[in-house]
Specification:
By secondary structure, this protein is mainly α. It has helices at 22-44, 51-77, 79-84, 99-117, 121-146, 172-190, 199-215, 234-255; strands at 3-5, 11-15, 18-21, 160-162, 168-169. It is built from eight helices and five strands, in the order βββαααααββααα. The strands form two sheets. A three-stranded mixed beta sheet has the order 1-4-5, with no helix packed on it. Strands 2-3 form a two-stranded antiparallel sheet. A hairpin with a 5-residue loop joins strand 4 and strand 5.
Amino acid sequence: MEFSFTPLERTFLTIGSLELKYYGLMYALGALFVFFFTQKVFKKKSIKINNEQMLDLLSYGIFGVILGGRFGYILFYNLSYYLENPLKIIAVWEGGMSFHGGFLGVILAGYLFCKKEKLNFYQIADLAIIPVFIALALGRFGNFINGELVGRITEIPWGMEFEGHEGKRHPSQLYAVGKNLLAFFILLFSLRLKLKKGSYFWGGIMLYGLFRFLVEFTRQPDLHIGFVLNYFTMGQLLSIPMFLLGIFMVVRLNSKRQSPTPSP
C-alpha cells in the first residue's frame, strides 16, 4: 500500500491583506486549550488565581516561547548566519524557532510571573505543563499539514511520500503528535499519585527529553547542520540533558525525608 501526502495551502483563510495560516491556527488552538485546562484544574485544586492573572500567565508564556524560541534557534542552530546578518534576528516571519529555547523561555517567564504575583512556582508549573503537551501535539500536526520537518527515508509499509522530498519517508511529525499525547496522558493520570511539588513539572521535562530523543531517530536532520558526532541530531543532543535533569529532580524531590511533626 502506498501513502502519499500533498501539503495543504498554508493559508486557510484570507481577510483582505490578512492571511491566517494553518500553523498559526494550531498554536492558537493550543494556547486556548492551555488556558481553559489550567483554569479548570487550578479551580479544582483550589489554587487561588483569577481570570486576569490567568490571562497574564498566558501572555507571559507566549512571550517567553517566542523570545526564547528565537534566541534558542540562533544560538543552537545557526549562530554564524545571524552574526553575519544581525538584522535577520528579528525576522521571525522567515521561520527559525527552537523548542528547547522556547521551553527555557516559558519556564523563565513563568517563574517571573509567579514571583511577581507571589505564587508558588512549582504549584503552578506542575499543572500548567500538562496541557502544554496538547499544544505541542497541535503544533506538530501543523507541521504535517505544511509537509515540513519530514522524516528520514524508509521502506516501512506506512512510509509516506511528501511533495518536494525524494522517496518514502517516516511521518515523523505524526510520531511527534503521538509522543506528546502520550506524555499528556501519563502526566494527567499520574496526578493521582500525589507526588511532591515539582514532580510533575520535572516529570514533563523528563518525558519530553526521552520521547524527543527517540523520535529524532526518524526525523531528517536540519540541512545546514546535518548529523552531530556522525549519528545524532542537534535536537537529540539538546534533549539528553532534559531527560537526565528531569529524572534526577523527580527522584531527588520524592526521596527527601519528611520533617518530623512536632509534638503538641
